[in-house]
Design a protein that fits this description.
Shape: elongated
Number of helices: 4
Number of strands: 0
Number of domains: 1
C-alpha cells in the first residue's frame, strides 16, 4: 500500500465516523479564530511569518501562557479579546497625547 492509498483509506474511514462533521466544523472554527488572532498580532507589530516570535508572544503568561499551535478555540477567543483591549488602550493613549499638544 502506498502512502497516498493509506491516506485515502484513513480519510474514508474518518468520513464514515459519525463525529466527522463535528470535527470538520471545529477545524474550520479553529482556522478562523487563528486567522483573527494572527491579524491582531500583525497590528501589534508582531512578525507573524516567524512562528518562534508568535509562540514567544503567546507564551507570555499575560497573553496565553502556551504555544500558539496548542491554543483551543476558547483560548483563541480570550487572546483576541486581550489583543483588542491592548489595541484600544494604545489608541486611547495616543489620543490623550495628541490632546496635550
Amino acid at each position: 500500500m502506498t502512502v497516498n492509498e493509506y491516506d485515502a483509506m484513513c480519510e474514508d474511514m474518518q468520513r464514515m465516523d459519525e463525529n466527522y462533521k463535528a470535527r470538520e466544523i471545529y477545524r474550520e472554527q479553529l482556522r478562523q479564530k487563528r486567522s483573527t488572532v494572527l491579524r491582531l498580532m500583525q497590528k501589534r507589530g508582531i512578525d507573524t511569518t516567524d512562528w518562534n516570535r508568535v509562540d514567544a508572544y503567546c507564551q507570555n503568561p499575560r497573553i496565553a501562557g502556551k504555544r500558539f499551535s496548542r491554543l483551543t478555540t476558547e483560548e483563541l477567543d480570550t487572546v483576541a479579546i486581550k489583543l483588542r483591549i491592548i489595541q484600544r488602550k494604545d489608541r486611547e493613549k495616543n489620543t490623550d497625547y495628541s490632546q496635550l499638544n
